[in-house]
Amino acid sequence: MKTTKTNTPGETPEPRESERSEFDRGGGGSPGAAPDPEVAPRARRRRFSAAYKLRIVQQADGCSKPGEVGALLRREGLYSSHLVEWRRARDQGQLDALAAKRRGPKADPDRALKRRLDQVERENARLRKKLETAETILEVQGNVSRLLGLTMPKSGSDS
User: Fold this and answer.
1) What whole-number distance in Å separates Cα of residue 105 and Cα of residue 76?
2) In degrees rounded to 5, what are phi and psi of residue 46?
3) pLDDT per position as a tens digit, 66-88
4) Any idea what DSSP says for residue 51?
5) What is d(CA 59, CA 75) in angstroms, rounded to the nearest whole number?
6) Of the chain's two ends, which shows fewer C-beta atoms within 10 Å, N or C?
7) Residues 57, 83: contact at Cβ < 8 Å?
8) Is the pLDDT of residue 19 over 60?
9) Radius of gyration of the CA atoms of the chain, in A
10) pLDDT category of residue 159 using cuts at 50, 70 and 90
């Protein structure tokens, strides 16, 4: 036999189990307690190898009874969209589509050429400046020799 507690006037009744707050049930801890420092792991994108994709597509193509493809997908933890995408890639003959794709910006095929062009342009500018300096020196030497009255022998190649 169950006994029930009767409340005297002015006393608040004790709440039922379903009416208690989490703090009252003992799950909330004390109000000043530190929160749980455990951080839930972040979900990572699944990656499938080309061999795995081809094996699953071949197994799915071999299914003849109703429900076999669904059972295969459930067993492997895949979605039907995976199968559709992998079949489309296989049918288009895109072997690269079945391989894992590298994410991020694509490599620039002309990068080496651009780098070499920049290097040659810098070298060209440096040599032009050096040539200009050499021409200025020769011009000054010619002016000095004329002022001093020194004559330079004429060479056969200078005309």
Assistant:
1) 31
2) -80, 145
3) 999 999 999 999 999 999 988 88
4) H
5) 12
6) N
7) yes
8) no
9) 43
10) very low
Region of poorest pLDDT, from 71-85, 101-115, 134-148 = 101-115
In 3-state terms, what secondary structure has residue 111?
helix
Please answer whether residues 112 and 120 qualify as being in contact, where contact means their C-beta atoms are separated by less than 8 angstroms.
no
Contacts of residue 31, Cβ cutoff 8 Å, sequence gap at least 6: 23
**Whole-structure pTM value:** 0.38
Residue 52 identity (one-letter amino acid): Y
Token code pair at residue 54: 């081809």
Q: Which two tokens stand for residue 24?
A: 């009252």
Q: Among all chains, which residue has been given the structure tokens 């000095």?
A: 144
Query: Which structure tokens are listed for 122?
Result: 């810098």
- Say whether 83 sits in a helix, a strand or coil: helix
Phi-psi region at 149: left, alpha or beta (left = phi > 0; alpha = psi -120 to 50): left
Domain ranges of the chain: 50-98, 113-149
C-alpha angle 147-139-133 in degrees, rounded to nearest 5: 145
Structural contact between residues 128 and 136, judged by C-beta atoms closer than 8 angstroms: no
Q: How many CB atoms lie within 10 A of CB 82?
A: 18
